[in-house]
Amino acid sequence: MRERALTFGPANLVAILTEPDPEQARPDAPGSIILNSGILHRAGASRMYVRSARALAEEGLTTLRFDFSGIGDSEVRRGESIPIEKRFIQETREAMDYLQTEMGLDRFILGGLCSGADGAFWTGLADERVSGIWQIDGFSYTTRGYWIRRYAPKLLDPRAW
After folding, report:
1. CA distance 31 to 54
2. Side-chain half-sphere CA neighbours of 1 within 13 A
3. CA 143 to each of CA 40, 64, 65, 140, 147: distance values in angstroms, whole numbers, following the listed order
């Protein structure tokens, strides 16, 4: 496995590229991109993304984990005011463009924790190069069952009052 730091895209986003050893590389495999969450940089909570990228490399996948603009080591984008959903899509597309140009990859699996999971979802809807996503603590839909499970125990517990 080989890891190296790099920058890509117009905003010079900071990333770590983890590549499998040549004998483990799977040329038919999609590229993997791990999206950081909230205020956490590309190492992830408790270095979860580092361990994930290395495990994926052992399975033959090339993985890029990067800092969105304004998070970690990536600079804030100047002169642009776009909603976070669109910025996540734009910057994830820039990551895919980099891997496509430099590594010859044309399919991608995206994933992340919390807002990284949300970014994977939004980009998956917007870009046909995304062939899969994984999400940890992503969206939740507030159904009737959600409200019952959330508040019923509190209604019946006098200590909650």
Report:
1. 13
2. 18
3. 29, 35, 33, 9, 7
8 A C-beta contact, residue 23 and residue 103: no
Strand locations in 51-129 (E): 63-66, 108-113
Cα separations in angstroms, 118 against 26, 64, 159: 28, 17, 35
Which residue type occupies 43? A
- Tell me, what amino acid is at 117? A
Instruction: Give per-residue pLDDT as tens, 90-102.
Output: 999 999 999 999 9
Q: How far is CA 118 from the centre of its chain?
A: 9
Instruction: Give me the residue label for tokens 């920058």.
Output: 7
Is the pTM higher than 0.70? The answer reads yes
The CB density around residue 33, as the number of other CB atoms within 10 Å, is 29
SS3 of 13-62 = EEEEEEECCCCCCCCCCCEEEEECCCCCCCCCHHHHHHHHHHHHHHCCCC
User: Rounded to an integer, what distance in angstroms lies between the CA atom of residue 46 and that of residue 5?
Assistant: 19
